[in-house]
Amino acid sequence: MTDNADIINHLRNVRRGAMFIFEAPSGTGKSTVIKELMKSDSNLKFSVSVTTRTPREGEKDGVDYFYITDEQYDEYLKQGAFYEYVDSQYGSRYGTLKSEVDSFINVGQDVVFDMDWMGLRQMKEKAPDDIVSIYMLPPSIKEVRRRLIDRQTDSIETINKRMNLLRDKMSHWNEYDYVVVNVDVAQTVETIKEIISAERMKRVRQTGLADFVKKLDDEAKGNEA
Ligand code: 5GP
User: Do 47 and 101 touch, CB atoms closer than 8 A?
Assistant: First the structure.
Protein backbone atom coordinates (compact mmCIF):
# COMPACT_ATOMS: atom_id res chain seq x y z
CA MET A 1 0.00 0.00 0.00
CA THR A 2 1.20 3.56 -0.75
CA ASP A 3 2.29 5.62 2.21
CA ASN A 4 -0.06 8.09 3.88
CA ALA A 5 1.30 11.23 2.22
CA ASP A 6 0.72 9.67 -1.21
CA ILE A 7 -2.88 8.91 -0.33
CA ILE A 8 -3.56 12.52 0.65
CA ASN A 9 -1.85 13.72 -2.52
CA HIS A 10 -3.81 11.31 -4.67
CA LEU A 11 -7.13 12.44 -3.16
CA ARG A 12 -6.15 16.05 -3.70
CA ASN A 13 -5.49 15.40 -7.37
CA VAL A 14 -8.44 13.19 -8.19
CA ARG A 15 -11.19 15.72 -7.73
CA ARG A 16 -13.65 17.90 -9.54
CA GLY A 17 -12.81 21.57 -9.59
CA ALA A 18 -15.11 24.21 -8.14
CA MET A 19 -16.30 27.39 -9.79
CA PHE A 20 -15.69 30.34 -7.48
CA ILE A 21 -17.86 33.22 -8.64
CA PHE A 22 -17.02 36.67 -7.24
CA GLU A 23 -19.09 39.79 -7.36
CA ALA A 24 -19.06 43.16 -5.62
CA PRO A 25 -20.19 46.71 -6.24
CA SER A 26 -17.60 48.75 -8.19
CA GLY A 27 -14.91 50.15 -5.93
CA THR A 28 -15.12 47.35 -3.37
CA GLY A 29 -11.69 45.98 -4.22
CA LYS A 30 -12.83 42.77 -5.90
CA SER A 31 -10.14 42.76 -8.63
CA THR A 32 -7.35 43.36 -6.09
CA VAL A 33 -8.58 40.53 -3.89
CA ILE A 34 -8.91 38.16 -6.86
CA LYS A 35 -5.37 39.01 -8.03
CA GLU A 36 -3.94 38.30 -4.56
CA LEU A 37 -5.77 34.97 -4.36
CA MET A 38 -4.51 33.90 -7.78
CA LYS A 39 -0.93 34.79 -6.85
CA SER A 40 -0.96 32.58 -3.78
CA ASP A 41 -2.70 29.49 -5.18
CA SER A 42 -1.56 27.86 -8.40
CA ASN A 43 -4.60 25.58 -8.51
CA LEU A 44 -6.87 28.57 -9.12
CA LYS A 45 -7.39 29.42 -12.79
CA PHE A 46 -8.97 32.69 -13.79
CA SER A 47 -11.80 32.43 -16.27
CA VAL A 48 -10.98 35.14 -18.76
CA SER A 49 -14.26 36.56 -20.07
CA VAL A 50 -14.78 38.22 -23.37
CA THR A 51 -15.94 41.82 -23.40
CA THR A 52 -16.71 44.45 -26.00
CA ARG A 53 -15.51 47.29 -23.74
CA THR A 54 -12.12 48.91 -24.26
CA PRO A 55 -9.26 47.91 -21.93
CA ARG A 56 -8.60 50.14 -18.92
CA GLU A 57 -5.07 51.28 -18.29
CA GLY A 58 -2.99 48.37 -17.05
CA GLU A 59 -5.40 45.71 -18.32
CA LYS A 60 -4.05 43.11 -20.73
CA ASP A 61 -5.76 41.22 -23.53
CA GLY A 62 -5.98 37.52 -22.64
CA VAL A 63 -5.27 38.24 -18.98
CA ASP A 64 -8.07 40.50 -17.71
CA TYR A 65 -10.43 39.93 -20.62
CA PHE A 66 -10.38 38.94 -24.25
CA TYR A 67 -11.29 42.26 -25.87
CA ILE A 68 -13.50 41.57 -28.87
CA THR A 69 -15.69 43.46 -31.31
CA ASP A 70 -19.49 43.39 -31.39
CA GLU A 71 -19.27 41.30 -34.57
CA GLN A 72 -17.08 38.67 -32.85
CA TYR A 73 -19.46 38.64 -29.89
CA ASP A 74 -22.42 38.04 -32.21
CA GLU A 75 -20.49 35.19 -33.84
CA TYR A 76 -19.87 33.48 -30.45
CA LEU A 77 -23.57 33.87 -29.66
CA LYS A 78 -24.49 32.24 -32.94
CA GLN A 79 -22.11 29.32 -32.30
CA GLY A 80 -23.51 28.77 -28.79
CA ALA A 81 -19.96 29.16 -27.46
CA PHE A 82 -20.97 30.88 -24.19
CA TYR A 83 -21.53 29.25 -20.82
CA GLU A 84 -23.29 32.45 -19.88
CA TYR A 85 -23.41 35.95 -21.27
CA VAL A 86 -24.85 39.30 -20.40
CA ASP A 87 -25.37 42.48 -22.34
CA SER A 88 -24.30 44.87 -19.64
CA GLN A 89 -26.02 47.85 -18.11
CA TYR A 90 -22.81 49.78 -18.80
CA GLY A 91 -23.31 49.48 -22.56
CA SER A 92 -20.65 46.80 -22.95
CA ARG A 93 -21.20 43.09 -23.43
CA TYR A 94 -19.61 40.24 -21.47
CA GLY A 95 -19.54 36.47 -21.73
CA THR A 96 -17.86 33.31 -20.48
CA LEU A 97 -16.63 30.87 -23.09
CA LYS A 98 -17.39 27.20 -22.37
CA SER A 99 -13.95 26.26 -23.62
CA GLU A 100 -12.37 28.42 -20.89
CA VAL A 101 -14.06 26.56 -18.06
CA ASP A 102 -14.68 22.85 -18.63
CA SER A 103 -11.11 21.90 -19.45
CA PHE A 104 -10.09 23.03 -15.94
CA ILE A 105 -13.00 21.73 -13.87
CA ASN A 106 -12.78 18.22 -15.30
CA VAL A 107 -9.16 17.81 -14.24
CA GLY A 108 -9.65 19.12 -10.71
CA GLN A 109 -8.59 22.71 -11.16
CA ASP A 110 -10.70 25.42 -9.60
CA VAL A 111 -11.88 28.31 -11.73
CA VAL A 112 -12.33 31.88 -10.51
CA PHE A 113 -14.99 34.04 -12.15
CA ASP A 114 -15.56 37.75 -12.00
CA MET A 115 -19.15 38.10 -13.12
CA ASP A 116 -22.38 39.82 -12.21
CA TRP A 117 -25.54 38.34 -10.65
CA MET A 118 -27.14 37.71 -14.03
CA GLY A 119 -24.20 35.52 -14.99
CA LEU A 120 -24.38 33.75 -11.63
CA ARG A 121 -28.03 32.88 -12.19
CA GLN A 122 -27.24 31.33 -15.58
CA MET A 123 -24.27 29.40 -14.17
CA LYS A 124 -26.35 28.12 -11.24
CA GLU A 125 -28.84 26.67 -13.68
CA LYS A 126 -26.14 24.94 -15.72
CA ALA A 127 -23.80 23.68 -13.00
CA PRO A 128 -25.48 23.99 -9.57
CA ASP A 129 -23.09 21.60 -7.76
CA ASP A 130 -19.97 23.28 -9.10
CA ILE A 131 -20.78 26.84 -8.06
CA VAL A 132 -19.49 28.60 -4.95
CA SER A 133 -20.54 32.24 -4.96
CA ILE A 134 -18.85 34.96 -2.94
CA TYR A 135 -20.12 38.51 -2.61
CA MET A 136 -17.93 41.32 -1.34
CA LEU A 137 -19.28 44.47 0.27
CA PRO A 138 -17.47 47.78 0.86
CA PRO A 139 -17.20 49.09 4.43
CA SER A 140 -19.02 52.31 3.41
CA ILE A 141 -20.33 54.18 0.36
CA LYS A 142 -17.96 57.07 1.06
CA GLU A 143 -15.08 54.62 0.73
CA VAL A 144 -16.41 53.36 -2.63
CA ARG A 145 -16.42 56.86 -4.12
CA ARG A 146 -12.92 57.49 -2.78
CA ARG A 147 -11.60 54.22 -4.28
CA LEU A 148 -13.21 54.87 -7.68
CA ILE A 149 -11.71 58.37 -7.83
CA ASP A 150 -8.30 57.16 -6.57
CA ARG A 151 -7.92 54.44 -9.18
CA GLN A 152 -8.10 57.11 -11.91
CA THR A 153 -9.37 54.72 -14.55
CA ASP A 154 -12.90 56.04 -15.06
CA SER A 155 -14.21 59.47 -16.04
CA ILE A 156 -16.37 61.36 -13.50
CA GLU A 157 -19.33 60.52 -15.75
CA THR A 158 -18.61 56.77 -15.54
CA ILE A 159 -18.03 57.02 -11.79
CA ASN A 160 -21.41 58.71 -11.34
CA LYS A 161 -23.02 56.02 -13.49
CA ARG A 162 -21.38 53.29 -11.38
CA MET A 163 -22.49 55.03 -8.17
CA ASN A 164 -26.07 55.17 -9.45
CA LEU A 165 -26.01 51.44 -10.23
CA LEU A 166 -24.55 50.57 -6.85
CA ARG A 167 -27.82 50.16 -4.95
CA ASP A 168 -29.23 47.96 -7.67
CA LYS A 169 -26.11 45.78 -7.66
CA MET A 170 -26.01 45.60 -3.87
CA SER A 171 -29.60 44.40 -3.73
CA HIS A 172 -28.43 40.97 -4.96
CA TRP A 173 -26.11 40.29 -2.02
CA ASN A 174 -28.49 37.67 -0.62
CA GLU A 175 -28.22 35.41 -3.69
CA TYR A 176 -24.64 34.48 -2.73
CA ASP A 177 -23.31 31.61 -0.59
CA TYR A 178 -20.74 33.77 1.23
CA VAL A 179 -20.60 37.49 1.96
CA VAL A 180 -17.37 39.21 3.02
CA VAL A 181 -17.02 42.90 3.96
CA ASN A 182 -13.73 44.11 2.52
CA VAL A 183 -12.23 46.42 5.14
CA ASP A 184 -8.66 45.22 4.74
CA VAL A 185 -7.48 43.40 1.60
CA ALA A 186 -5.04 41.06 3.40
CA GLN A 187 -7.70 40.02 5.91
CA THR A 188 -10.30 39.51 3.19
CA VAL A 189 -7.87 37.34 1.20
CA GLU A 190 -7.24 35.17 4.28
CA THR A 191 -10.97 34.77 4.90
CA ILE A 192 -11.61 33.76 1.30
CA LYS A 193 -8.74 31.27 1.37
CA GLU A 194 -10.50 29.55 4.27
CA ILE A 195 -13.72 29.39 2.25
CA ILE A 196 -11.82 27.87 -0.70
CA SER A 197 -10.13 25.25 1.52
CA ALA A 198 -13.41 24.15 3.03
CA GLU A 199 -15.17 23.99 -0.34
CA ARG A 200 -12.40 21.77 -1.73
CA MET A 201 -13.16 19.21 0.97
CA LYS A 202 -16.83 18.85 -0.03
CA ARG A 203 -17.65 15.23 -0.70
CA VAL A 204 -19.06 15.89 -4.20
CA ARG A 205 -15.74 17.41 -5.26
CA GLN A 206 -13.59 14.57 -3.90
CA THR A 207 -14.20 12.21 -6.79
CA GLY A 208 -11.37 9.92 -5.68
CA LEU A 209 -13.14 9.04 -2.44
CA ALA A 210 -15.27 6.15 -3.70
CA ASP A 211 -12.20 4.15 -4.80
CA PHE A 212 -10.35 5.03 -1.64
CA VAL A 213 -13.19 3.94 0.64
CA LYS A 214 -13.53 0.74 -1.39
CA LYS A 215 -9.85 0.02 -0.75
CA LEU A 216 -10.30 0.73 2.96
CA ASP A 217 -13.29 -1.61 2.97
CA ASP A 218 -11.32 -4.40 1.25
CA GLU A 219 -8.57 -3.94 3.78
CA ALA A 220 -11.07 -4.02 6.64
CA LYS A 221 -12.57 -7.25 5.27
CA GLY A 222 -9.11 -8.84 5.24
CA ASN A 223 -8.72 -7.87 8.85
CA GLU A 224 -11.88 -9.53 10.10
CA ALA A 225 -11.17 -12.04 12.82
P1 5GP B 1 -15.85 45.77 -15.59
O2 5GP B 1 -16.19 46.38 -16.91
O3 5GP B 1 -15.80 46.78 -14.49
O4 5GP B 1 -14.61 44.92 -15.66
O5 5GP B 1 -17.05 44.76 -15.24
C6 5GP B 1 -18.37 45.23 -15.19
C7 5GP B 1 -19.28 44.13 -14.69
O8 5GP B 1 -19.32 43.02 -15.60
C9 5GP B 1 -18.82 43.54 -13.35
O10 5GP B 1 -19.95 43.45 -12.50
C11 5GP B 1 -18.29 42.18 -13.70
O12 5GP B 1 -18.44 41.30 -12.63
C13 5GP B 1 -19.18 41.82 -14.87
N14 5GP B 1 -18.58 40.78 -15.73
C15 5GP B 1 -17.32 40.66 -16.15
N16 5GP B 1 -17.15 39.57 -16.91
C17 5GP B 1 -18.35 38.94 -16.97
C18 5GP B 1 -18.84 37.74 -17.61
O19 5GP B 1 -18.14 37.00 -18.29
N20 5GP B 1 -20.14 37.46 -17.44
C21 5GP B 1 -20.96 38.23 -16.68
N22 5GP B 1 -22.20 37.84 -16.56
N23 5GP B 1 -20.56 39.36 -16.08
C24 5GP B 1 -19.27 39.73 -16.22
Answer: yes
Atom of ligand 1 nearest to the CA of 22: 12
Binding-site residues, ligand 1, Cβ < 6 A: 23, 49, 53, 84, 86, 88, 94-96, 114-116, 118-119
**What's the predicted TM-score (pTM) here?**
0.85
**Nearest to 18, CA basis, from 196, 151, 215:** 196
CA nearest ligand 1 atom 23, residue: 115
Assess contact for 188 and 182: CB atoms under 8 A: yes
Q: What pLDDT sits at residue 192?
A: 98
**pLDDT reading at 108 higher than 70:** yes
- What is the mean predicted confidence (pLDDT) over 73-88? 91
Q: Name the E strands within 14-122.
A: 19-23, 44-46, 49-51, 65-67, 82-87, 93-97, 110-114
| Whether residue 87 has pLDDT greater than 60 | yes
Q: Which helix (H) or strand (E) holds 136?
A: strand 131-137
| Angstrom distance (rounded) from CA 184 to CA 131 | 25
For residue 83, the CA-to-ligand 1 centroid distance in Å is: 14
Provide the pLDDT confidence category of residue 45 given band limits of 50, 70 and 90. Answer: very high
Nearest to 14 by CA among 213, 216, 207: 207
